[in-house]
User: What shape does this take?
Amino acid sequence: MSKNDPYLETRLSVLEKALPDVAFDGWSQAVLDKAISEAEIDPSIAVLAFPKGVDNLVSAFSAQGDSAMLEKLPKPDDLKIRERITEAVWHRLEVDNAHIEAARRAAGYLSVPGRQKLATELLFQTAHITWRWAGDTATDYNYYSKRLILSGVITATRLYWFDDDSEDKAKTRAFLERRIENVMQFEKVKAKARDWSEKIHGDNAPFDGLIGALAKMRYGRGEA
Assistant: This one.
């Protein structure tokens, strides 16, 4: 969520008013209109702040969660990379604990056909922020592969988290740690496979597309 956004405060004010109703009525135009009224936002300003309607409200909810995650995270200096990623994803879930039903409704809203692009953008942004906090500075293929694979981990873990009734979401934590461990093992295999592929085919080996497809298959489904 950009601090330079001239409508940031407006969106956050409306989001605050909307969240109690979202838990019961979902992310709808009716909820948005009511929240705008309760926040006493001028209609002309509301049109500029929410040009895409409910999509903007859901985006504000996601961005607010990302910002809250960064505020709660410790300094990453003394953590190994897998610990950094695990803690970041865990904190991202924790900041939504107070609004878990709104988060569940947001997942449902974003799963509707026609909204996949928005869902992908919001998820990728969360993964990007997580990797940047963890110290990643990649700009090549790894920039995308890391974020896409982590997006799969976040999605699978969040879906597990929704239905977890264990104390302090302990089962979700264990599930997350297994997913991160799988990713680390996958990265090791990927590095070896890249070396092997380049030795046989040279620098133009069709390796990246294959790995991307495998990553999506393995980590995008949330298998235990």
Notes: The chain is about 75% helix and 0% strand.
